């Protein structure tokens, strides 16, 4: 049985993606411990589904479309640098403030729809912590936490919800959009 590494995310507007990728490159230029991500790799993950049977993809795509059809457009605001995990950072992210609760609402709406389509999958116990990863820490390296350039700021709207497949490789992950849905409004 063929399997796929899947997750559901929000796509970023092109200008925001470029600004964040530029910030990631600037951070990596000043810190050899960091490897910046390419603009096309930037997104805001809502639910990680893990390795799933490829046969579930059509049902998962339908679940994403169903949840998006009842959701309002998601809005947020870029909220500065956020290192994850704080004690032993492995990624540099830009935190996203959930403007008006739209991200939390979509996250909650997706959970039962995805659980119904991904047999045996359960929602993570951790609360949603919206962020966009811009750089990864190289294995065995210690980043210069707190010495990165200022992160981009500003409000943003997310144009669509996507079901993504992650293809892991030596140069990092490559993402394939399997399904795209736009919130109702």
SSE inventory with pairings:
Layout: E1 3-10, H1 14-29, E2 34-36, E3 44-53, H2 57-69, E4 74-84, E5 91-98, H3 102-117, E6 131-137, E7 153-158, E8 161-167, E9 174-181
Antiparallel strand pairs: 1-3, 1-8, 2-6, 4-5, 4-7, 5-6, 8-9
Helix pairs in contact: 2-3
Structural notes for this entry:
By secondary structure, this protein is of the alpha+beta class. It has a single domain, classed as Cyclic Phosphodiesterase, Chain: A (Alpha-Beta Complex), CATH 3.90.1140. The chain has three helices and nine strands; from the N terminus they run E-H-E-E-H-E-E-H-E-E-E-E. It has a five-stranded antiparallel β-sheet. Strands 3-1-8-9 form a four-stranded antiparallel β-sheet. Strand 4 and strand 5 form a beta hairpin. Helix 2 runs antiparallel to helix 3. The chain starts with a strand and ends with a strand.
Short description, anyone?
The chain has 185 residues and is of the alpha+beta class. It is built from 3 helices and 9 strands; from the N terminus they run E-H-E-E-H-E-E-H-E-E-E-E.
Class per helix and strand makeup: alpha+beta
Strand content: 35-45%
Q: First CA to last CA: what distance?
A: 38 Å
- Overall CATH class: Alpha Beta
Helix content: 10-25%
Can you tag this structure with a few keywords?
single chain, 185 residues, alpha+beta, Cyclic Phosphodiesterase, Chain: A, 4-stranded antiparallel sheet, 3 helices, 9 strands, 24% helix, globular
């Amino acid at each position: 049985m063929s399997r796929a590494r899947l997750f559901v995310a929000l796509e970023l507007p092109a200008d925001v993606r470029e600004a964040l990728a530029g910030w990631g490159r600037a951070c990596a230029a000043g810190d050899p411990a960091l490897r910046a991500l390419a603009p096309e790799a930037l997104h805001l993950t809502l639910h990680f589904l893990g390795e799933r049977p490829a046969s579930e993809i059509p049902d998962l795509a339908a679940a994403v479309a169903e949840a998006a059809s009842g959701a309002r457009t998601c809005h947020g605001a870029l909220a500065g640098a956020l290192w994850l995990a704080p004690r032993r950072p492995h990624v540099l992210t830009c935190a996203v403030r959930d403007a008006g609760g739209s991200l939390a609402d979509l996250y909650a709406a997706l959970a039962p729809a995805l659980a119904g389509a991904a047999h045996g999958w359960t929602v993570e116990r951790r609360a949603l912590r919206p962020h966009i990863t811009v750089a990864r820490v190289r294995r065995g390296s210690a980043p210069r936490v707190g010495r990165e350039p200022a992160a981009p700021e500003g409000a943003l709207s997310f144009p669509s919800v996507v079901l993504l497949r992650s293809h892991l490789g030596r140069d990092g992950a490559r993402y394939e959009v399997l399904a795209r849905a736009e919130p109702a409004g």
